[in-house]
Amino acid sequence: MASPLKQFEINPIIPLQIGGADVSFTNSALYMAIAAVLCAGFMIFGMRRGAIVPGRLQCAVELSYEFIANLLRDTVGSEGRKYFPFVFTIFMFVLFGNLLGMTPYSFTFTSHIIVTFAMAFVIFVGVTVLGFVKHGFHFFSFFVPPGTPLPLYPLLIPIEIISYLSRPISLSVRLFANMLAGHTLLKVIAGFVGLLGVFGILPLAFVVALTGLEVLIAFLQAYVFAILTCLYINDSLNLH
Predict the structure, then answer these.
(1) What is the pTM of this model?
(2) d(Cα 229, Cα 224) in Å, to the nearest integer?
């Protein structure tokens, strides 16, 4: 039986070297491109007609739009509307990446920490720059909880700074770990179905149940990634 971790191997499709650096087009890059194309196709074809009475695809697009719009409004307020394209793109890209990984013989690029950390780091840098642009050096007051007595500053300020700097790590690890663990468990249990023959019906039932759970987690993790992005934007705009 193949290793359950083999499904996470990154393999080059088009080997390419530039200046001694390996910039090959890999299976991970391929599925990221497919996810981006699917996101674009979903939006374009869903809103192509713009009917007053929406069909199924248009309804799905409108529900996605309203979901993120309401999420931004609830967490950031009216000022967050200008950041809707950014948050919506992140949500859809992560969601399609997660769901694409549920397709047999596909590749889950969100199960790699380098991918999730790159997205989380871009968000972290973006909201930090946003905070400095809006508040200037007053942004440093974010690391001092309101009402904190002066003697506690040496203790709480380092804790706040460490907590802030750990955001891209926690954001990326949460998504990566859930995708990695879920797909590994599915592969392990699925391996017993063939080995046990007629007695494999129980592992098969577990696989079916876990597949449904993984689809739910795919949506949940995209939601968590989006709502944390909204909360980080809110912190940068409104501080404490």
Answers:
(1) 0.90
(2) 8
